[in-house]
Amino acid sequence: MTAGHGGSPIQLLSPDGVRHPHERYDRFLADVDGRLDGVDRDALLVSLYEDMVVARRIDAEGTALQRQGELGLWPPFVGQEAAQIGSAHAIGHDDFIFPSYREIGVAYARGAELPDLVRQWRGNAHSGWDPFSLNMAPSQVVIGAQTLHAVGYAMGVLFDGAETAVITYFGDGATSQGDVNESMVFAASFQAPVVFFCQNNQWAISEPVGIQAHVPIARRAPGFGISSVRVDGNDVLACLAATREALERARSGNGPSYIEAVTYRMGPHTTADDPTRYRDANELEDWKEKDPIARFEAYLGSIGTLDDALRARVAEKADSVAAALREATIHMPDPEPESLFEHVYAGPQSVLERQRDHFERYRAGIEAGMGAGSLTSSEGGR
Known about the structure:
Elements (H helix, E strand, L loop, with lengths): L40 H27 L13 H8 L7 E3 L5 H7 L3 H9 L8 H4 L10 H16 L5 E6 L6 H13 L3 E7 L2 E2 L2 E2 H4 L14 E6 L3 H16 L5 E6 L18 H8 L3 H11 L5 H23 L19 H18 L9 H4 L2
Parallel strand pairs: 1-2, 2-3, 3-7, 6-7
Antiparallel strand pairs: 4-5
């Protein structure tokens, strides 16, 4: 049995911020532990801390923008910053990411422009960012579908002989989807260089994880022949180390890995959800004591890295990012109507081109003051 695969999650930082040594994972944290010459340990730790704080501020701003009618929907990820930022910092530049819809923190850490974080949720585009500029696929709203795409991409990497790894994110609810299980069959069969990263945030909308998973989710992967590990998803160092190990495994030709990061969704499933209807308030209070940012702050304070000046600087950065995000959202130009026909197919398609032609003539008629009635009945019926 893989360590941490079915019992208590592997934890390198306790909830009170105490760093515990670990025989297996310490070698993956030599840089942030200050054991590598020529590496600025404090800079690496501050980068993790800043990204976590800024990500939480982005989430709060996204929620506020939706409540104010500036976004159609928003998927909060507050409470999951350690899982997202810790894993994101492990991913190499040439690695490719296939996210679900909640990995906004990952996208920020990956370098996505601020308008691109909200473009899809404002309804201005089908995808927020250019997938090939970030090596990160568009957000996937269809539950679990991205795991198939990830394994397909990873099989292509394998056939090309490249030294690239692939990582795909999904939630505990997605583990019951056929897509996720089918993707694991192919990943194991072809020994694809892919990492399955499950953010077990305890709730699949209004269904608690215990209903669909009577044993730890990480135990499912070995049944497919995939090595798995269960880590504390509120421990940023554990998430960083486990993801580094899994990606190293993928790049070295040792096949797929599965990480279950045990965390908690502090907010609603999306802004269309009301968790107070199904979730005990006491449960939320219990998890607040395991807050990933507070835990990391306690650790940074204990080693002398965090002081009032740094805390203020990071808070100022977070406020600045939030203000820029709000400005970009409110003043985001509407897309041109013709853009509806772009990126539907990889190349020209006769039916789509005919529809585009009809639309352009219809729009020209409206602009000329002729109205929709200028179209003939045969044209309008196509």
